Amino acid sequence: MNQQTDVDVAHELSEAKLGRLHKWLGVMMASLTLFDGYDTFNPAYVIHFVAGPWGLSPQQSGLLISSGLVGFLVGAALHGLVADRLGRRVTLLGGLWITSIFTALTPLMGQSFGSFCAIRVLTGIGLGVLLPLATTYINELAPRRTANKFSLWGVALGWALGGTLAGVVGVYLTPIFGWPVLYWIGSASFVLTIVLHKYLPESVRFLALKGRTEEIRDVLSRLIPERADVYRNARLILPAAPTTQTPLAALFRPGLRRKTFTIWAAAFLSLFAIFGLTGWIPTVMMRRGETFAASFGFGALMQVMSFLGGLTCAHIADKRASSRGVLAAWWLMGGFAVTILVLLNSHAVNVICVALAGFFVIGAQFVLNNFTASSYGTAERATGVGMMLSVGRVGAILGPFVAGALQSASGDPTLMFVVIAGASAVAGAAIFSLGRADLGKHDLRGVLAH
Fold first, then answer.
1. Residue 68 lies in a domain
2. What is the mean pLDDT of residues 397-401?
């Protein structure tokens, strides 16, 4: 007689060892977010070449940087509603197709301020899917004991490498081929799209929520092959069907409402600081006396340090089993590093403070992404992460624009640094005001036998 074994799907995922498929899926998500990070930071290098010929004011330059973020806001806000209904896989692929198509169209059709900004908005709609949904996907895959570190390797590494690559291309290739080369290289994302179409499975937690048991057995067997025989005939314990609340409404139910608003505030302030600084750092550093190559290199430096900072923050958060205090400390120290730029100006100070700003300010944002994903249940997780990044992108849109306006009003970047440092510090205070995150509690509801 064939004895049936009970298998709790959420427990299997949370307690699994990192296997070969885990690592390959991490590489896929890192490759996907590489193109997100690369594309997001391209406009900071485009400005140097187009501000004069297009006759841009500082405010218009800020708008050029922010235009893609407008589309990102839309994509991040809407993608979760699609992903929580139709699945992570199809939504990720759709976002990547949109990003690839409009990236390739940018050098062909974006030859004026208006047309460039319009195409950037459309590209941003695709980008608004990639980072938040990759965060959701990797969080639903990661074993709980290494959730933050695995998310950093699987999402933040790609994003930081993409931003670094944008800096390398900006320094070495744009002087030879002009700014369009940034987007010709970015259109290599078409290759990744084809690869993901073939190899990317659906999230097991999403499949469990929908009761798609045969697909669950298949993916679990690939993730944890040593238990494949058990999964073949097991009675799967799955999450209960979600309530009639929409995922968006669920973010504001009792017990989550305050956390949702606080996370949104922290994301708004964090991304205001990040994009206000990274969008202007090459231009500002040239005004502070740095060479062209060094000024463009500061953007790459911030991205490299952001990954190291995020990885360190994630390691400490995993050891403490809590992200709140670590995130607060990271943003406070990042704000302090930016403040030093107000007081001192030398090459060494510029390098150290920009590196520390990337390490702490951007590094904390990576961990906030995973903190948000772990704060919601599977039924509303993609919507929760998407809305957090969507609200945050309002700050990202305002950051470069406000930074440009402050420089125009004051004649130097001093006031810009003060405002960015203050935003980072207040983000830390906001997240510290929360209680300890209740991670993953929504994933263990109900039983469905098969």
1. yes
2. 84
